[in-house]
UniProtKB/TrEMBL annotation:
It is found in: Membrane. This is 3-epi-6-deoxocathasterone 23-monooxygenase. It comes from Gossypium harknessii. Belongs to the cytochrome P450 family. Keywords: Heme, Iron, Membrane, Metal-binding, Monooxygenase, Oxidoreductase, Transmembrane, Transmembrane helix. Its cofactor is heme. Its main location: membrane. GO terms for cellular component: membrane. SUPFAM superfamilies: Cytochrome P450. GO terms for molecular function: heme binding; iron ion binding; oxidoreductase activity, acting on paired donors, with incorporation or reduction of molecular oxygen, NAD(P)H as one donor, and incorporation of one atom of oxygen.
């Protein structure tokens, strides 16, 4: 499944030419095989749920999506009893495959690039360590567990994450198609034309960020907490704004907190590739030792 997923991902940004042998063709074929694999798992889960009955425990997103969407015995607007009905399996498997993208690609890539940028910036690394060590000590002293909102009490960590997202441009832009003729700031976009909203252009614009190519988390102390706006768009914007915006920050904060307070690492020489998608040339090999 991992192999098919990787093949599918390679075609997300590629030349739109579809015949056997092209990147797009291979990607679409891999997606078809992936859908079949996921559907097989869904069918097994569904029959397992049928055996355990209505009271089976909901463990994950698959269970939620597989649940019947209308309750047995509910009446519809005409007063007739509704049939039990599920979301179509291909719809559910499409959703599950879409969720693999943040699980496998965007969030892990943000974590990897944070490690890379911090490795190249010892001062930021030191400040991040101090802030996180302080929280760890507090928790140990009062014997408390971490709570959901602890990550928000680490301002420098949040600034490191914002700066990583700005500089990394993990999603470098999004495409939109004009459904009708539209005028944007005096430019006519004819119906049917595509527009690339380039996030790199936003994040690397000197008018928005001084020395934009420099990893400088302290800039956010002056700019204020990074919220999604016209000059900070790692999660897109408008109606299609990424719903994983806070979950991503939470996951990256947890990863950085444990990495920095429990381990030390040495990264091997590697460099970032920005096209067609952002990645490390050698996947950033690191040697990790426990503190
Ligand atoms: C650093 C991590 C992430 C980045 C940089 C990122 C970026 C983006 C961007 C730019 C879009 C907009 C795409 C468009 O406008 O066409 C998007 C959409 C989306 N993201 Fe994320 N994302 C991240 C993490 C996540 C996570 C953790 C989840 C959920 C678990 C998630 C779920 C989604 C979904 C479902 C959409 C589609 C929304 C829609 O079409 O209405 N993302 N993401």
């Amino acid at each position: 499944m991992k192999r098919e997923f990787e093949e599918f991902i390679k075609g997300l940004i590629c030349l739109p030419i579809k015949f056997p042998g092209t990147r797009l063709y291979k990607s679409l074929k891999a997606k078809e095989r992936l859908v079949k694999m996921v559907e097989k798992i869904l069918k097994e889960r569904k029959s397992g749920m049928a055996k355990t009955g209505e009271n089976s425990v909901v463990n994950d997103a698959v269970d939620v999506l597989l649940r019947d969407i209308s309750e047995e015995g509910d009446d519809d607007e005409q007063g007739e009893t509704k049939e039990k009905q599920s979301l179509p399996l291909d719809y559910i498997s499409g959703n599950i495959i879409e969720m693999m993208i943040p699980g496998e690609e965007t969030v892990p890539m943000a974590m990897t690039l944070a490690v890379k940028f911090l490795g190249d910036s010892p001062v930021a690394l030191h400040q991040l360590m101090e802030e996180n060590m302080e929280l760890k000590k507090q928790k140990m002293n009062c014997g408390e567990d971490y709570s959901w909102t602890d990550y928000l009490s680490l301002p420098f960590t949040q600034n490191v994450i914002s700066e990583t997202l700005r500089l990394a441009n993990i999603i470098n832009g999004v495409w939109r198609k004009a459904v009708k003729d539209i005028d944007i700031k005096g430019y006519l976009i004819p119906q049917g034309w595509c527009v690339l909203a380039s996030f790199i252009s936003v994040h690397m614009d000197e008018e928005n960020y001084e020395h934009p190519y420099r990893f400088h988390p302290w800039r956010w102390e002056r700019l204020g907490t990074a919220v999604n706006n016209n000059s900070f768009t790692p999660f897109g914007g408008g109606q299609r704004l990424c719903p994983g915006i806070e979950l991503s920050r939470l996951e990256i904060s947890i990863f950085l907190h444990h990495l920095i307070t429990s381990y030390r690492w040495v990264a091997e020489e590697d460099h970032i590739i920005y096209f067609p998608t952002v990645r490390m040339k050698r996947k950033l090999p690191i040697s990790v030792t426990r503190l």
